[in-house]
């Protein structure tokens, strides 16, 4: 098991294994998306309060989950990079940022599309929305910093530090805005009690969440491979691979 | 230990002396603070009722921007003349040395803001309770701004045009301070207790005092490598 992880941390093995994984992950993503959308758009009953328009949830909620997941994942990767100095962690993390920002933007955009018919407004300064917006700023700050530094290694380390500082701040931001003002509905899935959402809606939601997750991993592997080729273009294993 | 204390004091004294040799620059962030606040009655409305309502936010946002403005040069001249490199090479822990620099920065930028704030409170017609709360939040909040901001400055010091980037990096991290501080001032104006918010700011300050020096030192090492 451990030797597998050690091997995986070497760019050469990572490149080979990820090359084999990507088609599988891509297929799983496609299947999950099709089934999630089918159950979500055709099978799930309309909501008793919100009618048909609640179906935007099947995109909105997974996107919001992903936006948080990717930030945390990046922080974990950078912690790994900091502690064990595994450069692959930093390649994966820097490949994730743009996707994290996109998911955050998607969550905000679908949220405002959903908010207009439900709350009668595109945007309110409510706790969840505001903290999600700040999360977007944190992603954009990271991207701006990394693209401003020319040397890739320095850029990655500086960005990593910023992400780690930001991760300290995320719970603070989350709770500070929560106490400040709130309108967003409370959690319906992730509470310790039984979920207050009906199984026929929960199933497509979970399918879509899995689909988003697999989609992210597929794309991040593709991006990481490209990044790796660019960074390691002078190393022996790439010359061996491409002659 | 003694050597560490003397290194700390030497840097503190040096930075304060440098600041007082450039007295004109010292006043700039302060004037900026004053002018931004002045813009609101002109731009929004001179009506006292409205001004009283927006005063906490106006003063605090001006304070954030002034802090950002003054932070930009925290490591710049040391970076340019090579003394930052000497600090990195010094046998003393860098995190302690940067604390001295941040403290010096707060003494020349945060503290004067604290002294100027009652005047601004008066200009915006704040009730005296709110003015006291403003003082208290500024007293706890401005060192926080210096500490958090220094991380961003340390990350961008090696870059040619770090200014705009700094805004993007630092302002999102300032948001919790802004929320708790303005909330406290508004609550005090409405006659409600504000201990909760003050404790929170104090907790943030303790957290920043312990973690920020390490982050600043790490950021400087990254920028200088």
Order of helices and strands of chain A: HHHHHHHH
Mean of the pLDDT scores of chain B? 89
**Assembly state here?**
heterodimer
Rg from Cα of chain A:
20 Å
* N-to-C order of helices and strands of chain B: HHHHHHHHH
Distance between the termini of chain A: 32 Å
Q: Low-confidence parts of chain A lasting 5 or more residues at pLDDT below 50?
A: none
Shape label of chain B: globular
The helix count of chain B comes to: 9
Number of DSSP strand runs of chain A: 0
Fraction of helical residues of chain A = over 70%
Mean pLDDT of chain A: 83
Structural class of chain A: mainly alpha
Main beta sheet of chain B, described? none
Helix content of chain B: over 70%
End-to-end C-alpha gap of chain B: 28 Å
Number of helices of chain A: 8
Describe it.
The complex is a heterodimer of chains A (243) and B (225). Chain A has helices at residues 2-8, 11-43, 57-84, 87-119, 127-148, 152-180, 199-231, 236-242. Chain A has 243 residues and is mainly α. In chain A, α4 (87-119) packs antiparallel against α5 (127-148). Chain A starts with a helix and ends with a helix. In chain B, α3 (48-71) runs antiparallel to α6 (94-123), α6 (94-123) packs antiparallel against α7 (128-156) and α8 packs antiparallel against α9. At the A-B interface, α5 and α6 of A face α7, α8 and α9 of B. Chain A: It is a multi-pass membrane protein.
Essential attributes:
heterodimer; A: 243 residues; mainly alpha; 8 helices; globular; B: 225 residues; 86% helix; transmembrane helix (chain B); Heme exporter protein B (chain B); transport (chain B); membrane (chain B); Cyt_c_CcmB_bac (chain B)
Topology (elements, then pairings):
The complex is a heterodimer of chains A (243) and B (225).
Chain A (H helix, E strand, L loop, with lengths): L1 H7 L2 H33 L13 H28 L2 H33 L7 H22 L3 H29 L18 H33 L4 H7 L1
Chain B lengths: L1 H20 L1 H21 L4 H24 L4 H6 L1 H7 L4 H30 L4 H29 L6 H27 L5 H30 L1
Helix pairs in contact in B: 1-6, 2-3, 2-6, 3-6, 3-7, 3-8, 6-7, 6-9, 7-8, 7-9, 8-9
